[in-house]
Design goal:
Layout (H helix, E strand, L loop, with lengths): L3 H10 L4 E4 L6 H9 L3 E3 L3 H13 L4 E6 H18 L4 E5 L12 H13 L4 E3 L5 H15 L3 E5 L10
Parallel strand pairs: 1-2, 1-3, 3-4, 4-6, 5-6
């Protein structure tokens, strides 16, 4: 398991300097670390968070948006009609609720189809693991700089330490 403080530091080390999103228990440790450091701008909805990240990018920041995968559906219009068309990148840190059918019923459909959805809208993605985190972050930085489009890092429960057991 990756400590939240270490993960946030690693994100900052690859240049991410603007964080926004919508709370989720899987992302709770990351959000707590960012909030304590006064680096997190909370959003009401995922589409709002993606739009704020676009503004931050246009203002010279490297943004990350934290959301659970069900919120990906809320963010699709902004991702498609703003970020992808105008090549406004952001790093999506997406908690993978419903992974392998293990979660509350409302998370199972998106949990099963999320990677297919990302493939369909042509957002590159990787599933983060403790063993591959260094390579995943190198890929994130390279893809962000070269392609200038949104990309997603998928976080399953138990990969980054959260505030709940």
């Amino acid at each position: 398991m990756i400590d939240s403080d270490d993960f946030v530091r690693a994100l900052q080390d690859i240049g991410i300097d603007f964080f926004t999103g919508v709370p989720d228990t899987i992302l709770g440790g990351i959000i707590a670390t960012l909030t304590e450091a006064r680096l997190y701008v909370p959003a009401v909805r995922e589409d709002e968070a993606v739009a704020m990240a676009a503004g931050a990018y246009l203002g010279g920041k490297i943004p990350a948006v934290l959301m659970q995968n069900s919120g990906l559906g809320n963010a699709l219009n902004v991702l498609e009609s703003l970020n992808l068309i105008y090549r406004i990148p952001c790093v999506l840190l997406v908690s993978w609720r419903g992974f392998e059918g293990k979660d509350a019923p409302e998370h199972l459909v998106m949990g099963h189809t999320m990677t297919q959805l990302l493939d369909t809208i042509k957002i590159p993605h990787r599933t983060l693991s403790a063993e591959t985190v260094v390579d995943d972050l190198k890929w994130t930085a390279t893809t962000f700089m070269e392609q200038r489009i949104p990309l997603a890092l998928l976080l399953k429960k138990g990969i980054v330490k959260t505030v709940q057991p």
